[in-house]
């Protein structure tokens, strides 16, 4: 086990990118509120330069089923659970991005927390040779989901303490317009069970990262 900087993680990924014509996919899994999006964008910023956009983020959250679809199915309160994502479309888009030559455009949906729904083509990949795929369930060993791992060259698990996760989720729910009471209820009945499910996937990761100051404690999964 050792503590590494963000720049060291970026150098590790860049060194693994051995072909100018093939994209390299790094998965970043972990429970909700662990800081996956923050790390994903920071890693890309460390990989990119003013003259070259070498890396881009492909978030899993863009594959949420729409609020209307979930409401019609009576599943809106379960939003964020595995069944509330379109896993078929997610794996199809991963396959498309892997098979499309570097330089050709591929649109990727993102989740808009303002409207609480996905937005098509919020990200467009062109010259990026590194794709950082971030999402809760990248390592989930369940039908449909287990196919995701085959599209990733490596996958890291971002760990975080329970108190940190719950505080971040609380602040996120408040920012999204929920009352404190609804925020606490959602954390208890939806987010915490989701985090427990994700924690069970950690052993399938190549590396486990735990924030330590400005760096990350890195160890193998166990």
Question: Topology, please?
Answer:
Layout lengths: L1 E3 L1 H11 L7 E6 L6 H12 L7 E5 L7 H6 L14 H13 L6 E7 L4 E9 L4 E5 L19 E5 L3 H14 L4 H20 L7 E6 L2 E5 L3
Parallel strand pairs: 2-6, 2-7, 3-6, 7-8
Antiparallel strand pairs: 1-9, 4-5, 8-9
Could you characterize what this model shows?
Helices cover 34% and strands 23% of the residues. The protein has six helices and nine strands. It has helices spanning 6-16, 36-47, 67-72, 87-99, 162-175, 180-199, and strands at residues 2-4, 24-29, 55-59, 106-112, 117-125, 130-134, 154-158, 207-212, 215-219. The strands form two sheets. A seven-stranded mixed sheet has the order 1-9-8-7-2-6-3, with helices on one face. Strands 4-5 form a two-stranded antiparallel sheet. A hairpin with a 4-residue loop joins β4 (106-112) and β5. α1 packs across α2 (36-47) and α5 crosses α6. The longest helix has 20 residues, at 180-199. It is globular and about 50 Å long.
Question: From the helix content, strand content and strand pairing, which structural class follows?
Answer: alpha/beta
What letter string, H or E per element, gives the SSE order? EHEHEHHEEEEHHEE
Described by strand count, sense and barrel closure, the largest sheet is: 7 strands, mixed
Strand order of the largest sheet: 1-9-8-7-2-6-3
> What distance lies between the first and last C-alpha atoms, to the nearest angstrom?
12 Å
In CATH, the architecture is 3-Layer(aba) Sandwich
Computed Rg: 17 Å
CATH homologous superfamily caption = P-loop containing nucleotide triphosphate hydrolases
